[in-house]
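Key idea: predict the complex, not the pieces.
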Amino acid sequence: MDAEVRFDRVSCHFGDVKAVDDVSFEIAEGEFFAMLGPSGSGKTTCLRMIAGFQYPTYGKIFIHGKDDSSLPPFDRNVNTVFQDYALFPHMSVLDNVAYGLMVKKTGKRERYLQGEEMLDLVKLSGYGNRRPSELSGGQRQRVALARALINKPRVLLLDEPLGALDQKLREQMQVELKALQRQVGITFVFVTHDQQEALSMSDRMAVFNNGRVEQIGSPRDIYDRPSNAFVAEFVGTSNVLDATAAHQLTGVAKPVSLRPEKISILTLDQSTDGISGVIADVHYMGSHTRYIVDVGDETPVRIAVQRQNLEGNELPVGNKVVLSWDDDALRPLDGGTP
Amino acid sequence: MSETLSIHTPPAASYSRRISAYLYGRPHLLLSILLLPPLLWLGIIYVGSLIALLAQSFFAIDEFSGIVVHELTLDTYRQLFSFANMDIILRTASMAAVVTLGAALIGFPIAYYMARYASGKTKAFMYLAVMLPLWSSYLVRVYAWKLILSKEGIIGWTFEQFGATWLLQMILDLPVIGGASLSVSYIGMFLVFLYIWLPFMILPIQAALERVPPSLLDASSDLGARPGMTFWKVILPLAFPGIVAGSIFTFSLTLGDYIIPGIIGSSRLFIGQAVYMHQGVAGNIPLAAAFSVVPIVIMAIYLTIAKRMGAFNAL
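Result:
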């Protein structure tokens, strides 16, 4: 696996704030890589360091094996799709797309030809003469993509690319972005705070928190085997049990994560084999229902349980229930609860 | 029935509450009421008087009696285009152009600093520094400059201290723009105009630059543009409406000013002085009106060119 981007013990400080704190990871060639984390976790700073808008305070960043740590953005073979798209308002859509070629002093004919090709790629042919202000949010996003791709970068960086779009359009763009990445075959690195987006789109993802990378892996790795409480709770929903609670419920005094959908919930007349508890709250979510169940005799523990909705199986608040799960549903975690 | 009614009738309302409720449902009526006075002001007093002025320029003065003849004629304009008057117009327009250029060159970096780098207290200080001169009397400032520029003034004194009087003399010996001292030369007049109108250039440029999202500059460099290219292709075009707005101020203010040319500089007339003279001493209102049409026409041409160049594309 050839590393397209490699972070070697990179830190980025703004005064006393350690935005990125001793981070090392690799992004493979042709990968769709997600950097996931809450705001202020350092993911955007990492993206900006790959683009060259920010230089690392310590450490090195290698792009395609070359130390690019302090190369300015205009000398890097990396392009960015900005969160606000950053389209030039005084230029037509075609001039926006062809900007990278204009900078390289490519002839007008040639750059417009290539610009039209890129617009074609993002399904916006015929929009070249419009102004960015005349386009919808989704269309601007496509123009930003076309503009970033025209220089044939090795790596495409996307900063919260779908953040400003509404739910329906966002889902559609997720599919299109994946398809586009397969089509152009370059490395995509995208930053998001939406765990669903990261899970559904990426080949691999890094979970950021407080300037550090908490875990790196495939979405399945991250979801099924979160390494610590932060990851377990940030990616998807999880019952994170501290050592005491875990001891009470499982017999082992080590912190664990337990996904709500891995727990089976039965009424007393269906089973008595498991942990008994009382339903404290019910959230109907359409395809499934989430139950909040109070368990434990000594210290009460709240457990979220998720169950597919089948015909007529809703359980009311106050109902006594029995919870059970397979042993491999329990994921041991590093450290304690966050 | 009466119960149902009482539910739907709002509580007994005061007049002001009722008026508010009435207007709330009719936003256009509210808007027209609010806009009517300023529009009347603008329409009648402002544009109206401008048209009256314009109309004056199409009358002419009777050579013998000195009375304005209310008959449409182009005689006044014929008079305007005489050699002596064209000289005044050309002189004023050149000065206005040079002042505008100078103000743009000096104003842009200051505005750029204010918009991009200064924040918090520094920004407040910059605003204050730019506006402060406007708080003191215009006349006082011009007379202060007369002292600064005079032969015994601080500029001459500084040159003397550095033993560079010869340099100042060389500058003053330049044809046309030189003179006996800075205070009676076009160079001096240029400096004073530049000083007086600079805030009017800085503020619009600063406002225009303020509206340029930093991500546009990132995007430009991301796409391979070096800072110089980013400046020419992104920053300057986006600041252009501000520069045009600022230059409208500096240009038209210089075109119409009659105080600075009166105090600083030679006895050669500027448009403002010509207007002042013709409407006052000479009583030639039509010619004064024709003279004041000149800046309007120049500005109209200027704006047309600016529009052609795409100055307002980003608006």
